[in-house]
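Continuing the series of single-chain predictions for the mutant panel. This is the parent chain; the variants come on the following pages.
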Amino acid sequence: MSTRDHRARTERTGTGRPEASARRRRDARPGGATPAGAGDRVVIGTVPPAVRVCGALLVLAGLAGVLAAVPTYLVVGGEELRQVRGVGGALATLLIPVVHLTVGATLLRRAVPKFGLAYAAVAGALAVGELLIELYRGSSSTARPGVEVLAGERVLTSSVQVGAGWVLGVVALVLTVLAGVVGTAAWGRTVMEDRGPLDPVRSLLAGAAVLLGVVAVLSLSLPAADVPEQLRTDPATGMRVVVVQEGPQALLERPGLALLGGLLLAGTLLLCAVVAPSLRPRLAVVGGLLAVAVTVLRAGLAGLRDAVSSDELVWTVPGVGLVLAGLGLLALTAVAWRARRTSA
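Parent structure:
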């Protein structure tokens, strides 16, 4: 080959290795292998259409969750309750819908698909227990009336009527469960690999996630906001006695669907905390831990919202534990995300 012919071939391919250049161009096409990070060397191959279906379901769940914050949630004993009252209520209510929208958008673009699929699978599994609890609140809570804290209000569930906010919330949970089912089905047919930058710290990450998961489950078993005990003076004896007031029912004290939902939520949360750090590639760990973290953090923030918005309630130690566990899980999510920096 003459020097002029070699130069012309080099200019057409952009390198002295035409095969390597052609491979890079082929890999950059949608559905082909594409590097997603300079230090991580993430390779994305086959992305089935179900990935976009999963993303669409997550986006719809997020939209339904955002819309559920506006209208009446429940009418309990003639009192209308709304989920959002102030900044704290908005943060606790909109945290998960906003994350759904963000992750769903990445799946619609087929970007880092196993990140979104892992998030959807874990969020869908956790939503099953939450769905059963919501169904109990809107349909069965009057069968055994008791004191509950709903949308920041301490109420007696003597009569309950559902509002548009409750219906939209249930729709959001159903869509989340469907997204989890579709995401799980698409997982095995989606190709996404990396060079294993998380492997050196994976065992430490798993141990910390399990510990935080146990803390979260123990905290969920008691109310995040409760009625404080009162000291009163007995007029007959002049002695000061502790008067215990009836407070909201704990997660595992409720009957029927609520008890089943609480058991499923606690068991699934702990299982997902164990499984998420073992997922591959690294970004799948990020997605799985993110779903667990926002679920735990939302529960803790809801307790804080209830304590701030009501003069009858105080924030409890389990409520503090949920917030700390949620923040700890977010920190582990950040550690998994930043692990790509060490592989450059």
